[in-house]
Amino acid sequence: MAIPDLVPIAHEPDYRTSTIGHYDKGQFFGSVTATLTDGAGAEDDWYRHKRWYAVLHRFDADGAHIDSDIWFAGTSETEDASIDRAEARLAEWLDALPGRHFADIAIRLFQVEVDGHVFGLVDWSHEYDGEDHAEFLPDDLGFDPPWDGCYDT
């Protein structure tokens, strides 16, 4: 079974996919997430390299990526404040979506690069010994058969 053209993602209130759904122009996926440069986690000052972002991806009704807002909120040097800033920015963006309601979505693979990091839903099968696998990055949400919207973290 190959990765489907539309990968379903289940809305889970109060968890990792609590800010996904539909609005007047299509679908959206919002999150507060962090990136870490490869190898930086082993360094004593890793917290300077962990970067927090507010992210809002928008898709048309057919699941094709339209655009993304990705805003750097700070590093883990001031982690709580960085997360608070990112959550506030995401809330502003979500409040501005006309007709917004939280719900399951189904989207196509896509990716954008910001600050040298990939954001999106990508084919990650090469990381799973060729087994069909899609990964939402940098959120680390993994999707596999039976493609029912559930994910692994």
TrEMBL record:
Superkingdom, taxonomy of origin: Bacteria
A GO molecular-function descriptor: lyase activity
Keywords from the UniProt entry: Lyase
Protein name, as recorded: Formate hydrogenlyase regulatory protein HycA
Species whose genome carries this gene: Micromonospora taraxaci
